[in-house]
Design a protein that fits this description.
five-stranded parallel beta sheet; 19% strand; Rossmann fold; HAD-like_sf; 344 residues; alpha/beta; 3 domains; six-stranded parallel beta sheet
Length: 344
């Protein structure tokens, strides 16, 4: 049996929405997990695509939830987008900002001039999430891009997790302009681009960082692109059905129900390394009957009872070996109920 999952890493990089909190509520166990990492001497960082708060505001929000954080530990797409534009354009250049006041502040802090209308002849449009973004500013952005402004999106997350379920994210707002302009943004700054992760590792001097996220299409794909191991927690957007259908570039190293998985044996969370073989210990491959954590998978029939994550590891081994998730059948009451809950 392996040691604790986190033991093999010298930095843990957390996503925020869906991992640490949901909108403004901490996810149960998250403050305790971060506090335990700190008490054990493991450095942490926070990398978020949400551009609606600046780093000091994010740190204050986290501390208010009982999650210890310093502004220097927070990297967000708003600051990264502003820094990119400052390198590309002369100081004082007008930039049309679509998003929250935090993005406006980041653009101003980078030495550029935030504007809100196409008549100001902006050299760029920077678009980030903001709950007050509406038709008027989107219309100005469309006019500016058609006039030649560079279009930079902080991120393209389609949804934001919330206690009531997924809500429209910046990607949904980007889609409005994409439809109107019939083109994609010139640059997408945030995850799945690896920059936030590589910057966090460089600032910490980490040689073996671990990325923890809730989205396969941003957090996990970004970690894969950065060459980093990753842990998918099932407290946010991506669920078991998404994981079974994930292509190789979106497959995490580990999966856990929540952040407590950081302190469980690594082998209890390790996913198969690739389709068709090289499974983690005790998982098997190639269609053989396999068992783990009280579950048994024989062909397409899942039976037994136990930790749902153990069953998910078995199912991923089968799915990534070519068995469709929808083909799995429950052969015990517990398995049937779990598969139904997972929409399989």
């Amino acid at each position: 049996m392996s040691g604790e999952l986190v033991d093999g890493y010298d930095l843990v990089i957390f996503d925020l929405d869906g991992v640490i909190f949901l909108i403004d509520r901490p996810i149960p166990g998250a403050p305790e997990a971060v506090d335990r990492l700190r008490s054990e001497g493991t450095p942490v960082a926070y990398a978020t695509n949400n551009a609606s708060r600046r780093a000091p505001e994010v740190a204050a929000l986290l501390n208010g939830m009982g999650v210890p954080a310093a502004p220097a530990e927070v990297l967000n797409s708003a600051g990264a987008a502003a820094a990119l534009l400052a390198k590309r354009f002369p100081a004082g250049s007008p930039v049309l900002v679509v998003g929250a006041e935090a993005l406006v502040a980041e653009v101003r802090a980078a030495g550029l001039t935030p504007v809100s209308g196409a008549e100001d002849e902006p050299v760029a449009v920077v678009q980030g999430y903001g709950p007050e973004v509406g038709w008027k500013i989107l219309a100005e952005a469309a006019l500016a891009v058609r006039a030649g402004a560079v279009w930079v999106a902080t991120n393209t997350d389609r949804t934001l997790p919330s206690p009531r379920g997924p809500l429209p994210g910046n990607g949904s707002l980007v889609a409005v302009l994409r439809t109107a302009l019939d083109r994609d943004p010139d640059v997408v700054v945030g995850k799945p681009e690896p920059g936030l992760f590589t910057t966090a590792a460089a600032l910490s001097g980490a040689k073996r960082p671990l990325v923890v996220g809730d989205r396969l299409d941003t957090d996990i794909q970004g970690a894969v692109g950065a060459g980093m191991d990753s842990l998918l927690v099932l407290t946010g957007v991506s669920g078991p059905a998404d994981l079974l259908a994930a292509p190789p570039e979106r497959r995490p190293t580990y999966v856990a129900a929540d952040l407590s998985g950081l302190f469980r044996p690594a082998d209890e969370a390790r996913l198969p390394t690739k389709a068709g073989g090289e499974a983690a210990p005790g998982q098997g491959a190639g269609g053989q009957a396999v068992e783990a954590g009280g579950w048994r998978l024989a062909g397409t029939r899942l039976s037994g009872a136990g930790d749902p994550v153990a069953a998910l590891l078995l199912l991923c081994g089968a799915a990534w070996d070519g068995v469709p998730g929808k083909a799995i059948e429950g052969a015990s009451p517990e398995a049937t109920d779990m598969l139904k809950k997972w929409d399989l």
